[in-house]
Amino acid sequence: MYKGRHLLVDCRNVAREVCLNDKLVLNAMARAAERAGATVVSQVRYKFGQDSPPGFAAVVMLDESHCSAHSYADLGLIAMDMFTCGTTDPRDVLFFLREEVDLGDIEVREFGRFAVNQDAEEGAMLPSLDREGIGVLTRTA
Question: For the segment 35-67, what is each residue's pLDDT rounded down to a tens digit?
Fold first, then answer.
């Protein structure tokens, strides 16, 4: 069991029009998060292209965590992540987002964040840090 779930979504072959439409993607992410049961707290977007390659960054802050997107319009790429805690499932956010926006070909990686120890007395795995600050799992008792 984890405190949260985190999706990393790599979108390839995305239409240039989508990769340049920061408003569309931001608003669709917010609607998708709400449909999945999350509470939208704030939204911000920024369009690149004057001093850098064209694209955008967009973030939807949630009471349950966040959704973000960063596009590379010249390459037809969007890097996204959906991180949620509690009962909101980030896979639902992605499902609802794909109903509104054609994200091209996607690759999804899912990670559990912060393993929760329900019974440390029976040797459950607990997160800790090694000397270099890299997360490792250790057994209790």
Answer: 999 999 999 999 998 888 999 999 999 999 999
Identify the sign of the CA torsion 81, 87, 89, 92: negative
- Is 141 inside any structural domain? no
Number of folded domains that form the chain: 1
Q: What average pLDDT does range 23-46 have in this prediction? A: 98
Q: Is 71 a catalytic residue?
A: no
Active site residue 67: no
Annotated active-site residue in 6, 19, 65, 66: 65
- What is the value of pTM for the model shown? 0.81
Burial degree of 61 (CB within 10 A; 0-12, 13-18, 19+): middle
What pLDDT score was predicted for residue 124? 43
**Which domain covers residue 7, as residue numbers?**
2-112
DSSP H helices, 44-101, are: 90-100
Q: Calculate the alpha carbon distances from 2 to 5, 31, 73, 86, 112 in Å.
A: 7, 25, 35, 9, 6
Predicted local distance difference test score (pLDDT) of residue 49:
81
Concerning whether 65 is annotated as a catalytic residue, the answer is yes
* Closest C-alpha among 67, 77, 73 to residue 35: 67
Among residues 11, 19, 67, 85, the one annotated as catalytic is 85
